[in-house]
Specification:
Number of strands: 21
CATH superfamily of one domain: Immunoglobulins
Helix content: 10-25%
Largest sheet: 6 strands, mixed
Radius of gyration: 48 Å
CATH topology of one domain: Immunoglobulin-like
Number of helices: 1
Order of helices and strands: EEEEEEEEEEEEEEEEEEHEEE
CATH architecture of one domain: Sandwich
Distance between the termini: 170 Å
Structural class: mainly beta
CATH class of one domain: Mainly Beta
Shape: rod-shaped
Strand content: 35-45%
Length: 281
Amino acid sequence: LSCVLIPEPLRKPTISLDPDSRVFVSGESAEISCSGGHPGGNFSLYRDGEFVASQTAPGNSDAVTFTAPEIRAGRYWCRYTRQIDGGELTSAESERVGVSVWGPLQKPIVSLKPDSRTLERGQSAEISCSGSYPGGNFSLYRDGELVMSQPAPANNNTATFTPLEVRAGHHTCIYTTYIQGRRFTSPESEGVGIFLRSNSTRKQTAGLPVGIVTALVITALILGIGAYKRDAMVRIARRWVPTAGADKTFADLTSRNRNENCCEAVEEDGPVYANISLIRP
């Protein structure tokens, strides 16, 4: 009489994810662990029925961990085999684990209203931060320090901050959102520098063009009057039309200041000399 030993069937393996979530964003890595009831098993991982990878449990361990540098959406499960008395036993398939992959949170965008990087001290302004998912919670930072946080309105992907006092500095923002119960945080936005100036500086700057124009006009008037006094010359041209048969006379009268040698005098006052030319037809 012979006795045949029938080994017990292998225990159904269990599968788990790290992080413990069924939701991931594109480009995110994850670890998928599979454990059985017997050490030294050879585990195989599948996604949507297609083979992904296989790995043998080390030493006396009954579990392996598959590392996915960039996890993909699908339904994952695993099973393992074990050598017993020269034969190979295969376990049942584990439960399915569904994984969904969403698009990554985009870097938010910071904008100002009024659209200027230079504001007057005490001037009010709005700082808006926009993300890629609606309903996020936005945080505003200045020079790396938290200024304030607030949620975006329902079904809106933009939060608008209205600080009581806008201060100079490098402003950035980030936002967080929940997707199927898991919290995600966006990258930091590009920085926007804000500069402040005082009201008196603006008034002084605005008055500079008016003062410059006034000074130029006064200077031109002074130079013009001086040139007129130095080079005064009166030239008179007169024409008389006589009656029929009379002589036609044209007089060309030039008035200059002269000295005794009939040359132009330096002084402005003095006798007036006239040159008269008579022309007959």
